[in-house]
Input
Amino acid sequence: MSVMIDHSLQDSGIFNIIFSDTVSLNDILEFLSEFEKMNNLPQDILVLCDLRKAKSNVKPRDILTISKMTYKATASFKSVRTAIVASKPNLIAFAILFTREISRSKTIRKVFSMEKAAIEWLQKTHNL
Output
């Protein structure tokens, strides 16, 4: 897997995904393929996706492809709550487009500019 995408399951139960450097569509799809094979994750998964250190050459037309692959990678989960933290205008725009590509009730995605607010939202939605 690419070193531009790092991940870990935190003690808090939040699965952190950190994007750094330039991330391509292929990098994202490769990560999602690997993610789909992970079997040690909670069934009600909380995901913190940090884009603050990332650059991207992903095109707007690729958002639907990423969203479809994300649904495939998360199909076995009971629920998926994803907080996306972004600070660059183009990545904020992509993150907002990605959050709009939702067709499953078990999936909630939201965009944040601050990590603390994202974590608080994940913890709050998890305890509903």
Notes: The mean pLDDT is 89.
